Amino acid sequence: MEKIVLIFSGGMDSTVLLYDLILQNKEVIAVSFDYGQKHKKELLAAKKIAEDNKIEHQVLDISSLTQHLSNSSLTNADIEVPDGHYASSNMSVTVVPNRNMIFLSIAAGFAINRGIRQLAYGAHRGDHFIYADCREEFVSSISQTFKLCDNTPVILQAPYLNYTKADICKLGSKLDAPFINTWSCYKGQDLHCGQCGTCFERREAFVDAGISDPTIYEK
Amino acid sequence: MEKIVLIFSGGMDSTVLLYDLILQNKEVIAVSFDYGQKHKKELLAAKKIAEDNKIEHQVLDISSLTQHLSNSSLTNADIEVPDGHYASSNMSVTVVPNRNMIFLSIAAGFAINRGIRQLAYGAHRGDHFIYADCREEFVSSISQTFKLCDNTPVILQAPYLNYTKADICKLGSKLDAPFINTWSCYKGQDLHCGQCGTCFERREAFVDAGISDPTIYEK
After folding, report:
1. Measured between beta carbons, which residues in chain B are less than 8 angstroms from residue A144?
2. I need a surface site. Which of A17, B62, B67, B142 has the fewest CB within 10 A?
3. Residue A179 in 3-state DSSP?
């Protein structure tokens, strides 16, 4: 069974990718990052989903970097997470600079250290509006860099780059991915708030996919 | 004065690069990484050199990752640092997987967060034997990735890529870089051991450059 390291947030996209990879008969090692998020709901969601699938799950702690990467509302307690759609101008405060490149680089080191050469992450088209490091040209470039970062190439898979979130939702539904156990909301209250950028996107995805949304939203 | 973030280990190469950048009238922000090195001598060296030059110096702590990247003799207490030349087969235990890519990615996030778009590091030709992430094709590829990782490109400088360490030594001598305050040795005793890969390389560089070596070696 081929091993693959998956960057696993506990959200919808990486959870569908987890189920996708398991179906492809891969042995998935899931890595999540504690980067000083204001809440740990997504890490708990990741833990539960990994346990349910009896796969190894590692939380890599880079929260000590937060103070140096702290202009984002996702990590800085002084900045409020804005309500509204990703496409809105106010969403730029949810950008953690170079987050995906940092995650990918560390995950690659983690993989190399174990002799694993496969790496996967669930970037998708909907993210591209504001997150440069989810765009196809970025992924294509960093894939090339990963082929050169060690004596044996690391192969990066980002199979949903041209999927909408609704496409991922449809695929997840086919794969019986447990959407109810995934966490999206940036605010991390008891329930999904239903108002922040990622809640908007989550709701829309289910509607666009024509799939019943099991999520209970605050509003 | 243009700002630039320099990856600064406190060793010879990044110290010469610091002096080089200062001479180019750049405002340097030096970042060092605590990645769970067995010793802190190089971080102390970096601190002193930064203080002497009155430049900002930040130590970014990623030591919690060590357990996940721990097959290297530089971080793993159970593995001894080997004596001998870099070109020797036993030197592979000094490789921390994907270290430079991790450092560069985090330093880029740090720079972007401050609105700085210039990044520098002191990789040089001598490292290429065993460290894939010091090779020209790697640096060329990651430079391209940095142009795409955010909406505004980050520009990576690695001006010593085709320098030998002796070349850097000669340049440093011209620039009055304080070699006596730099630290190379992997072992981190009171004095440079004179026997490990990086001590070998340091000694050779001074000899090849025809410059008097101010370092006091244990052996």
Report:
1. 141, 144-145
2. B67
3. helix
If you search the block for the tokens 């305050």, which residue do you land on?
Answer: B181
Contact assessment for residue B42 and residue B81, using Cβ atoms and an 8 Å cutoff: no
Q: Cβ–Cβ of A149/B133 closer than 8 Å?
A: yes
CA distance B29 to B175: 19
Looking at CA atoms only, how far is residue B139 from chain A in angstroms?
A: 8
Contacts of A60 in chain B (CB under 8 A): 64-65, 68
β-partners of residue B57 are: B30
Query: Closest by alpha carbon to A4, among A74, B170, A20, B178?
Result: A20
Q: What is the pLDDT of residues B4-34, one digit of tens each?
A: 999 999 999 999 999 999 999 999 999 999 9
A151 vs B contacts (CB less than 8 Å): 132
Helix (H, G, I), strand (E, B) or coil at B153: coil
Q: How confident is the model at residue B74 (pLDDT cuts 50, 70, 90)?
A: low
Q: Do A105 and B109 touch (CB under 8 A)?
A: no
For residues A60-71, b (16+ Cβ closer than 10 Å) or e, as one string?
A: bbbebbbebbbb
Torsion angle (degrees, nearest 10) of CA A206, A212, A213, A214: -160
Cα B136 to Cα A122: distance, rounded to the nearest angstrom: 30
Q: Which residues pair with A3 in a beta bridge?
A: A27
Sorted by where each starts, the structural domains of chain B and their CATH numbers stand as: 3-78+97-183 (3.40.50.620)
Q: Which pair of structure tokens corresponds to residue A38?
A: 């204001």
pLDDT in tens, B133-166: 788 999 999 999 999 998 899 999 999 999 999 9
Q: Which of helix, strand or coil describes residue A6? A: strand
**CA–CA distance, A97 with A99 (Å, rounded to integer):** 5
Decide if B152 contacts B171 (C-beta within 8 A). no
Query: How distant is the Cα of A80 from the closest Cα of chain B, in angstroms?
Result: 17
Token code pair at residue B8? 């600064």
Cα B89 to its chain centre, rounded Å, is 22
User: Residue A79 corresponds to which amino acid?
Assistant: I
Q: Write the DSSP symbol of residue A216.
A: P
| pTM for this model (two decimals) | 0.91
Is A98 in Cβ contact with B149 (below 8 Å)? yes
